[in-house]
Amino acid sequence: MNARIALALALAALGLWTAAGFLPALIWAAILATTLWPLYTTFAQRIASGPSAAALIFTLIVALVLFTPMALAIYQIAEQGDVLVGWVKRAGESGVEVPDWLARMPIAAESLQQWWRNNLSDPKAATAWLKTVNMDDASNLLRTFGAQLLHRLFLMFFSLVACSSCSATAACSQAASSRHATSYSGRQARV
Description:
By secondary structure, the protein is mainly alpha-helical. The chain has helices at 2-19, 23-46, 51-79, 81-94, 100-103, 109-121, 123-132, 135-190. The longest helix has 56 residues, at 135-190. The chain is elongated and about 80 Å long.
């Protein structure tokens, strides 16, 4: 008997250890399911195809609302990559003038302008400063950023799937409990 309890505890611990990576996604799913429940019930009442279909359609709409701004932001970052490359090339060839907005900064405007003049306005100084930027580190930073972004998107997808499952299950449970309450109250009236 003690061996079975030890095995059950070991399996439970392994299960929790495995699920630990999904815990943030499950927490977000619970938050989303709780906060979106009033919207979902209103939406599900208008969709007559059943709770599973309503949950799927509602989840797709929520995914569109969440993923579209992120996709647009990623697209804009990718589009501006050539601008950054052009800026770095221009900085190495002719330097970069101090931008106007730098003078309007409320704190440390003078020191920032002086640093800019010393390091980026002079082409030789700009080239020397840009050489100190290690491209391998920048590449590793972008690779890490991309991996973290994909990981977060996967967690968001998992959260939405879990939220959809919660919504469909809760709607089915609510309908079943409503039927049971109605049948129970009908029996009470007959007695």
